[in-house]
Amino acid sequence: MGEEQVQRFTVQSTRILGVIGLVIVAVFVLVGATGIDDSYEAPAYIVCGIVAMLLWVAVLRPSVAVEGDRLVLRNPLNTVRIPLAAIEQLVIRQWLVVSVGGRRYTNAGISRSRRQGMRDDRHTGDTGEELGALSYGGFAERRIQKLAEDARERLGVKPYSDEQEARAADVQRDWAWPEIAALCLLAVALVVTLLV
To answer: What pTM value is reported for the model?
Structure first.
């Protein structure tokens, strides 16, 4: 591939809820900082920071994308990069579950209800009409499965082969150190301000 292609799979309703939560926290801080309704004690501002960070890591940060030949799962405190050709199985139900080399990787960035899953399972074709009848989770599942199948074909990797197992060793996990550090610092700050 000459130019690395990126396909993102995002549920906008979840992101909207996360942004609304951050706006509520910001308004709460603004009201306290301006002294409109008496200013708050220091722990209240730190709790606002913790709530904002939790909204970020739990609601806004999780996402799923395909970047070039890798499936990228951005989880609350880490990012996992999986070679598409190494994917043995992928299913989206309450969250995304990917099986690679005997290990399972999950992500809450995409989901679908049990009812949506049962309805989607009735649509087995790949025509535009069939794909249009799927829920967003069903569409994302089919699309990622197709990209994984194409990657295996392009590289000549047979499913459940030794070569696919070898590619599974190339799974990368990177920790979200800024988020981890921010949560730790805020937790320590809260304890210190409560003890003082």
So the answer is: 0.88
Position 153, amino acid: E
Distance of CA 11 to the CA centre of its chain: 10
The count of domains in the chain is 2
Q: Which amino acid is present at 26?
A: A
| Pair 121, 92 in one domain | yes
State which amino acid sits at residue 51.
Answer: V
Sheet of 96-100, strand order: 87-92, 96-100, 103-107
Q: Does residue 69 lie in a domain region?
A: no
Q: What tens digit of pLDDT does each residue of 97-108 get? A: 999 999 999 999
Return the residue matching tokens 């030794």.
162
Domain that holds residue 158: 81-174
pLDDT tens per residue across span 139-161: 899 999 999 999 999 999 999 99
| Whether residue 168 is found in the same domain as residue 102 | yes
Determine, yes or no, domain membership for 93.
yes
DSSP character at residue 84: G
CA distance linking residue 27 with residue 23, whole number of Å: 6
Hunting for tokens 């535009």 — which residue is that?
Answer: 128
- pLDDT confidence bin for 1, thresholds 50/70/90: very low
Taking alpha carbons only, the member of 78, 75, 127, 85 closest to residue 106 is: 75
